[in-house]
């Protein structure tokens, strides 16, 4: 922590009190350095008298910068970190011209990395109520801002996804009602078929959203049992076979590790495989192949879904596990809402596993689920699971 040297502030200490004052000061310094906030204090003559270590961390100063540093030079460096350096000048100006003012706002810095900080500026009074300086604090709120943004995006995505099928349903039903006298039977049937498809789409979307919220809030219970993974794969393949055949896709199974046993939730793991397989079938053109492989590795059981389909571009690849993300391939319109992979990922993570993907555009994709042979105890159910257990015991 940096303080303006005592002689500069004009303070003097008699020799008897020096030790205890030094101790007090060390304690205060330690406390100020231990806080999460970057703190700067200005005295009544508008000089900086205190900068804690967190300022250095947030604005990227090293220990070397701080040793023997002069305040002005440090302030100039801080100023240059602001996305809008004039905002920093404004802070100082406000401090100087409105000594009693309290201001709170968000500011952005760009070095050493882009961050959003909540700045608070306020007066400091002594015990008699005399203004003795002003304090500026900066708290890193980057993560909070990101989460808020994600929530807003999520709500707007959901609304959009709900509105599209609803608009279609309303349009076709209105046409059927309004043109009842003139509409021929074929057209009416056709329209009703669309209404049914869109209704299915709506309920699929709502089911997925409910699943996701149950998983994320920890409300989805895990029913653990010993699962033979090869057996599980065969079952899932059976349930999706017709869909593959209809599209002219060959389904294959490659069991390199027969009879491996894994303790987990059978339905949830089946859902993971189903989501991956339905993607593989959806994104593989007729005549292609989709294979599921079961392998035993040193620490994991690996389930891979391998397809010879359209692949995923390098731009899309980092995003496909995001909710609602779907690649926008020109001219190709695919069913779906972009919740299949995030759901699969959540379910695998609940089993202590990971999903990896390798893909190249035009050359097919491989999604590999890696389930750990040894797993920590299952996560407590819900946020308060552990607390509740503690209470009971
Ligand atoms: N096997 C695959 N081959 C090519 N692209 C894939 C494959 N699997 C996923 N993707 C890409 O990732 C995106 C997200 O997949 P995800 O399963 O989350 O959503 P979806 O299949 O579009 O919709 P939903 O699963 O909700 O019906 C897909 O839209 C697609 O662009
Ligand atoms: Mg999908």
Describe the 3D structure:
The protein is an alpha+beta fold and 393 residues long. It is built from 12 helices and 13 strands. A hairpin with a 5-residue loop joins strand 5 (115-125) and strand 6 (131-140). The two termini are 46 Å apart. Residues 6-13 and 379-393 have low confidence and may be disordered. Bound molecules: adenosine-5'-triphosphate (ATP) and magnesium ion. The site of adenosine-5'-triphosphate has 21 residues, from helix 10 and helix 11.
Largest beta-sheet details = 6 strands, antiparallel
Q: How many individual helices? A: 12
Largest sheet, spatial ordering of strands: 1-3-2-6-5-4
Q: Secondary-structure element order, as H and E?
A: EHHEEHHHHEEEHHEHEEHEEHEEH
**Helix fraction bin:** 40-55%
State the secondary-structure class. alpha+beta
* Low-confidence runs of at least 5 consecutive residues: 6-13, 379-393
The proportion of strand residues reads 15-25%
Task: Please tell me the overall pLDDT.
Answer: 86
Tell me the overall shape: elongated
Question: Which small molecules are bound?
Answer: adenosine-5'-triphosphate, magnesium ion
Number of strands: 13
The N- and C-terminal alpha carbons lie at a distance of 46 Å
Q: Supply Rg.
A: 31 Å
What key attributes describe this structure?
alpha+beta, 393 residues, 46% helix, binds magnesium ion, five-stranded mixed beta sheet
Task: Summarize, please.
The protein has 393 residues and is an alpha+beta fold. It has twelve helices and 13 strands.
